[in-house]
Amino acid sequence: MTTSQPVPGAATPSIQFVLGVDGGGTKTAALLARVASDGTHEILGRGAAGPSNPLAAGVATARSNLAAAAAQAWRTAGLDPRPADAAVFAVAGTGRPEMAAQMQTAIEEDAIARRAQFIHDADAVLAAGTPEGWGVALIAGTGSSAVGVSPQGERVVCGGWGYRYGDEGSGYWLGREALAAVAQADDGRAAPTLLAELILAKFACTEPRAILAALVATGDERAAIASVSPLVAEAAFRSDAAAIRLLGRASDHLARLVVAAATRLKLPQGYPLALAGGVLCLCDAVRQGTVDRLAEASPAPGIVRTAPDPAAGCILLAAKQLAS
Question: How far apart are CA 174 and CA 179, in angstroms?
Answer without folding.
Answer: 9
